[in-house]
Specification:
GO terms for molecular function: DNA binding; transposase activity. InterPro entries: IS402-like_dom, Transposase_11. This is IS5 family transposase. The protein is of the alpha/beta class. The chain has nine helices and six strands; from the N terminus they run ααααββββααβαβαα. The protein has a single domain, classed as Nucleotidyltransferase, domain 5. The protein is 40% helix and 15% strand. Strands 1, 2, 3, 4, 5 and 6 form a six-stranded mixed beta sheet that branches.
């Protein structure tokens, strides 16, 4: 993963530009607006502190808010996931997924969806990640940190099935999901398999199948906007997670393109 922000290349923009209405005359270039959003994600800058080299922050936020409400980032995320899988020689949709959560601190003076995770000693929110076996984020959700992992996962079943379709066969998770969530999956003919480390071990131990989602969670450290939850609404929190995955996928796609066509750099 590239540790610094880079503007969208022509190849990356071509992969996602069909989602935008480019025929209408506008004051601002949508490609530049999206570059600015990715820059915010990488640097963690506040909206009102955008440098003057970018469009005015209210214009950038307007587009972010409109695209968020329209579910555009989620659709782009699914598309770049499928494109990356196809370039890696896999089927567009996954047959196996992994699920896990991450508790993160919430910025001060925000009280919506706030709770304390007594196990991890975090006062804030809890993110649920559903990724495939190569770490691509397919479904995400954010809620208060005091809500049980399994309870958070049950409402996501419909979104998971909608995104992955009939090809989905199995979901890996820890003991927290081996209850109502596993029972609901069984009704849809999807298997749940508990993947946990041996009880006698201490410290970090890579668990087969589950380490992938742990790695995806660790990727959030490359994006300062999401190392902590700064959002007043959980919908914004979720969409920043999708944007982070989109940026990772676009970097993968660009790298493969450069490897296959080095003379086009």
């Amino acid at each position: 993963m590239t540790p610094q922000w880079m503007p969208l290349t022509d190849y990356q923009w071509a992969a996602i530009s069909p989602f935008f209405d480019l025929q209408r005359k506008r004051k601002h270039d949508l490609r530049q607006i999206l570059d600015c959003i990715f820059w915010l994600l990488r640097t963690g800058c506040q909206w009102r502190n955008l440098p003057p080299t970018w469009p005015h922050w209210q214009a950038v936020y307007y587009y972010f808010d409109q695209w968020k409400k329209a579910g555009l980032f989620e659709r782009i995320n699914a598309t770049v996931n499928q494109l990356d899988r196809q370039q890696a020689g896999r089927a567009p949709l996954p047959s196996v997924l992994c699920i896990d959560t991450q508790s993160v601190k919430l910025a001060p003076l925000i009280y919506e969806y706030r709770g304390s995770d007594a196990h991890k000693l975090v006062n804030g929110r809890k993110r649920t990640y559903v990724v495939d076996t190569q770490g691509r984020l397919w479904v995400a959700d954010v809620d208060a940190a005091n809500v049980h992992d399994g309870t958070l996962a049950v409402p996501l079943i419909v979104s998971i099935l909608w995104r992955c379709g009939e090809r989905l066969e199995k979901i890996f998770g820890d003991q927290a999901y081996n209850g109502v969530f596993a029972s609901e999956l069984a009704e849809w003919s999807v298997d749940f398999e508990k993947a946990s480390r041996p009880e006698s071990t201490r410290g970090f131990v890579p668990v087969a199948k589950r380490w992938v989602v742990e790695r995806s969670i660790s990727w959030t450290n490359f994006f300062r906007r999401i190392v902590k939850d700064y959002e007043y609404t959980v919908s914004s929190s979720v969409n920043w997670l999708y944007l982070a995955n989109i940026q990772v996928m676009l970097q993968r796609i660009q790298l493969r393109h450069q490897t296959q066509f080095p003379n086009m750099l």
